[in-house]
Design a protein that fits this description.
single chain, alpha+beta, HIT family, subunit A, ten-stranded antiparallel beta sheet, 13 strands, 24% strand
């Protein structure tokens, strides 16, 4: 039995034994959705009240220290079982899902959300679980547990960008390098700015990620980079990296009617916007989406600097 089959069986057993997971998964069947179309791509908006805790989570250092870590084994619900992955991570079923199959993949020990030393595990997980997209949220741009290293994984096909990626790359992409073993493309579709890394060799992806990571770390004067990452694997890796300029948009902090409770993370960057409040689901327009993503994406000038750095770096690689 391979890793994907083990995870499939584990998920089924958890659905049968954990009523909270089963009930919330069942509710996804009747979740309300709407679409907003842009020039050559789309965003899907999901009204999902179960995500209110995650979307509104206080992730500042003081708040994090004042609560118990919900990813540590001793603090998990007794019904939440774990499936070991290479003795380094534990695969957990997420009881408040966005996808029909939604997992949190937590480090076995309580270590901070730091991608630099863990990026290789992201690639390993995505290769082991080809039916899923594996994703990462930085501690300051989407992770609701910034004190405990974790990835997430979910059913493929739910985020519009997955199906639109070829067209978006063709229309908005700028090749940084093209070779038989490795491609890198900078993409700015007017809402999101992203770097697409593609290869059949994990070491090429890892080598390409390092200068991007270091550039974003320098922007924060040594603090953990603000990155959201989506990783797919089918015969080759496709890794989408979204460098961020801001954690939450202005609307998140507004009072009264101007407030919109949206805190973009990797899934939102992939085109699936999660709205835990009905009022926001009903009012959210294409212009709102454009404004929100213009605030949280890496600014144009810094994205241009990043492209220049990566072009120069990749151009010297064999």
């Amino acid at each position: 039995m391979d890793d994907q089959e083990r995870v499939n069986d584990f998920f089924i057993s958890q659905v049968h034994s954990w009523p909270l997971l089963a009930d919330n998964r069942e509710k996804l069947g009747s979740v309300r959705l709407k679409s907003c179309s842009f020039d050559g791509f789309s965003f899907r908006v999901q009204f999902n009240p179960g995500r209110i805790i995650s979307s509104s989570a206080k992730v500042d250092p003081v708040s994090v220290k004042q609560r118990e870590c919900f990813l540590c084994a001793g603090n998990r619900p007794p019904q939440q079982k774990a499936l070991r992955f290479r003795d380094a991570y534990e695969i957990l079923c997420n009881p408040f899902p966005i996808f029909r199959e939604h997992f949190t993949i937590a480090r076995t020990g309580h270590t901070p959300q730091v991608i630099g030393t863990e990026f290789g595990w992201l690639l390993e997980l995505s290769r082991a679980l080809p039916r899923l997209v594996v994703f990462y949220n930085g501690p300051d741009c989407g992770a609701s547990a910034p004190d405990h290293m974790h990835f997430q994984a979910g059913s493929r096909g739910a985020m519009p960008l997955e199906g639109e990626l070829a067209a978006v790359t063709e229309r908005y992409g700028k090749p940084l390098v093209r070779s038989r073993e490795f491609n890198a493309t900078a993409i700015d579709d007017g809402l999101r700015r992203m770097i697409l890394l593609e290869s059949v060799r994990s070491e090429r992806i890892t080598d390409a990620f390092t200068p991007l990571h270091d550039f974003m770390r320098e922007l924060r004067e040594g603090a953990e980079p603000m990155l959201n990452i989506l990783a797919y694997y089918r015969e080759r890796w496709q890794v989408l990296i979204f460098p961020r300029g801001r954690h939450r948009p202005r609307q998140f902090f507004e009072k009264g009617e101007n407030n919109i409770l949206i805190s973009p993370a990797a899934v939102d960057m992939g085109g699936l916007l999660i709205t835990p409040l009905e009022k926001d689901f009903l009012r959210l327009s294409g212009e709102d989406i454009r404004d929100i993503f213009s605030q949280v994406s890496l600014p144009v000038l810094q994205f241009r600097e990043l492209q220049e750095l990566l072009s120069a770096t990749y151009g010297h690689q064999p």
